[in-house]
Protein 1
Amino acid sequence: MGRILIFILVALAVIWAPMIDRFPGLFAYLQQTFAYVTPPLVAVFLLGLYTRIGARAALYGTFCGHGVSVLAFVGSLAGWHDVHFYDRRRIVVCRGGGGLRRVACHPGYA
């Protein structure tokens, strides 16, 4: 079973390798990929840290979150939407005074 899984993963990697050429660089590819992979894991971790969820709920949440991330990633590659993995405006947001407020914005970034 392990050899079959490795063969399938290697075949997927060979098929996916030309897609990396569509990105401006390897670092940009890695950052955008991590931007889609990390949020479901962090969400499940924080839910498990602060609430009492079971292992099955965590597993389903992770699978559903990664499914949504795959759809968003494919949509980004297809040009349906444009999601940046970092904030270009340099806005600092603080909580205080009963809500969120923008504290500073670097004027050189749009």
Protein 2
Amino acid sequence: MNRGKIEQMGDPNTLYGRPGSVFVANFIGETNLLRSTVVGTEGETAALSWNGITIKAAQGGLTPKAGDHLYVVLRPEAIHCSAAEPTSGNRIKGKIRHRVFKGNHTSLSVEVGDGTMLNALVHPSDVTQLNGEDIWVGWKPETTTVIPDRHAHN
């Protein structure tokens, strides 16, 4: 509920994996919200312009059109960090700005592109493979979804 109004109904997995609004995405767990512009669609996947690159994301039940402004919901545990450029999926260069060891995972704050900070949760053994600050950040399109940017005038 948001100000006495039901934002979305569903089981916890649906609310977490396919939130219907920015409020729900932020209310249920940590998230990275990537404000993007649709450049095209193919099947159930949207191609979006974000931070100077084209990324792909699951449409999540929406029917976006080119030019629409949407948020890509990218959960921290869906992000893979590596020293080498990933060969598939979405990817962007970044710099580790902050690391916090939390036992079963390490939380990374990674600065990408125009200064956007992405939060990633990685296994501690994966962190040892990252030498220095410069890394690649990647994720699979099917691990994301898009939600409306209610402030945009699509």
